[in-house]
């Protein structure tokens, strides 16, 4: 009897560490899953959809919606009409055990996924609003945008763009009318209105693209983008000013290379840019979200493992894989395997994953409880010659197409 008991005890001791290790690994993978925000194909989803399985299994913390599938050169992606979109987001959210981030790029102008042809109201570009320079007008448009997003079940708008329009013919910012102005003060005034309007409707926002994409002469979607000789420190001013209010939910990274900030890595992969400059020197404590990691500036120069390791060590919390420029339906599973392996190899501290997980959970809790109270900061000076209510209404009567 004693011999049998001893054998059972030894067997239990051998099994226990394995069980604990298995539990630790599950917890680690769950935290990593919260850090991934991915794109998918389909105007509707069901139990057989890969994205539904990823959501249900906790392999992703959010999704991103597009109206156009770049890899297929097709408008059959995620958005076709208000009714269809609302049903899609409801099904996505229902698959999640907790709050799922559902993101979209709805900046206005050329970068609008919810287009008029699908039954949504048209929205002016940031450049046009900045040119008018009447924050009341920007506020009204932002309120209408945020109201539509909330009604559609979208809780994260990857906007506003706070890039300063240093290079007006910039192919991805100025050339597309995405910047409010070359004047950082104007950028700040209008961005603050966009943020506050979204918070009133419990929709998160993301300032982009840090530390500044407005001075580039190339599009980082298509490859290596060096701003060393064109970037100026005034491109940091919108962030510095907006951080004085607690309303900045997220900051999105730029895939630009700037040797003046880091001679080795582009911003998304740079600890010097994100951890030292953004976190420690500028004091940002919110969620850092990457731009799409499948863009050419990252994908063409770095392996997936290197990109994941560097961006997490740099301080990124949410990592986007749009699955649009290229389509990789298993990307979430692959990322979890790679990142958990890097933790086991002690190349990424487990504490670093925990930090990101806690930031994301805090933001999701605020979203879930409706705590995104706007705070239109008194630090922003009023614009001279502000429009009257009648004038604002008159502006809305104009076509913004």
What can you tell me about this protein's structure?
- The protein has 401 residues and is α/β, with parallel strands linked by helices.
- Helices cover 42% and strands 9% of the residues.
- It has helices at 2-34, 50-56, 82-94, 126-132, 135-151, 184-200, 237-242, 271-281, 296-299, 304-314, 331-344, 350-368, 389-396, and strands spanning 36-39, 62-64, 101-104, 106-108, 111-112, 156-157, 204-210, 250-253, 287-289, 319-321.
- An 8-stranded parallel β-sheet has the order 9-8-7-6-3-2-1-10, with helices on both faces. A two-stranded antiparallel sheet has the order 4-5.
- Residues 4-20 and 378-401 have low confidence and may be disordered.
Task: Annotate the secondary structure layout.
Elements: H1 2-34, E1 36-39, H2 50-56, E2 62-64, H3 82-94, E3 101-104, E4 106-108, E5 111-112, H4 126-132, H5 135-151, E6 156-157, H6 184-200, E7 204-210, H7 237-242, E8 250-253, H8 271-281, E9 287-289, H9 296-299, H10 304-314, E10 319-321, H11 331-344, H12 350-368, H13 389-396
Parallel strand pairs: 1-2, 1-10, 2-3, 3-6, 6-7, 7-8, 8-9
Antiparallel strand pairs: 4-5
């Amino acid at each position: 009897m004693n011999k049998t008991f001893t054998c059972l005890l030894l067997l239990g001791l051998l099994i226990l560490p394995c069980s604990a290790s298995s539990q630790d690994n599950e917890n680690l993978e769950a935290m990593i899953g919260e850090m991934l925000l991915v794109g998918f194909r389909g105007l509707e989803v069901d139990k057989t959809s890969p994205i539904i399985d990823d959501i249900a299994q906790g392999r992703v913390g959010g999704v991103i919606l597009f109206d156009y599938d770049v890899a297929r050169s097709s408008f059959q992606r995620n958005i076709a009409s208000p009714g269809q979109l609302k049903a899609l987001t409801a099904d996505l959210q229902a698959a999640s055990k907790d709050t799922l981030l559902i993101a979209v790029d709805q900046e206005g102008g050329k970068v609008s996924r919810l287009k008029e042809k699908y039954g949504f109201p048209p929205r002016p570009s940031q450049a046009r609003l900045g040119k008018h320079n009447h924050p009341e007008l920007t506020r009204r448009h932002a309120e209408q945008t945020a109201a539509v997003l909330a009604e559609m079940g979208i809780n994260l708008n990857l906007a506003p763009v706070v890039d300063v329009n240093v290079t007006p013919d910039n192919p991805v910012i100025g050339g597309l009318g995405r910047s409010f102005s070359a004047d950082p003060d104007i950028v700040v005034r209008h961005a603050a209105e966009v943020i506050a309007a979204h918070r009133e409707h419990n929709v998160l926002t993301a300032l982009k693209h840090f530390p500044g994409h407005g001075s580039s002469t190339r599009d980082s979607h298509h490859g290596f983008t060096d701003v060393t000789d064109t970037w100026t420190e005034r491109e940091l001013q919108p962030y510095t000013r907006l951080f004085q209010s607690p309303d900045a939910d997220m900051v999105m990274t730029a895939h630009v290379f700037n040797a003046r900030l880091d001679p080795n890595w582009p911003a998304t992969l740079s600890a010097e840019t994100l951890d030292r400059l953004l976190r420690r020197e500028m004091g940002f404590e919110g969620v850092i979200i990457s731009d799409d990691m499948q863009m050419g500036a990252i994908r063409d120069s770095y392996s997936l493992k290197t990109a994941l390791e560097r961006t997490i060590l740099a301080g990124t919390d949410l990592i986007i894989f749009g699955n649009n420029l290229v389509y990789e339906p298993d990307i979430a599973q692959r990322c979890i395997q790679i990142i958990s392996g890097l933790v086991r190899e002690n190349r990424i501290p487990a504490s670093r994953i925990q930090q990101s997980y806690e930031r994301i959970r805090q933001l999701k809790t605020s979203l879930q409880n409706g705590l995104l109270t706007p705070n239109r900061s008194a630090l922003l000076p009023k614009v001279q010659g502000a429009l009257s209510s009648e004038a604002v209404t008159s502006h809305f009567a104009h076509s913004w197409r």
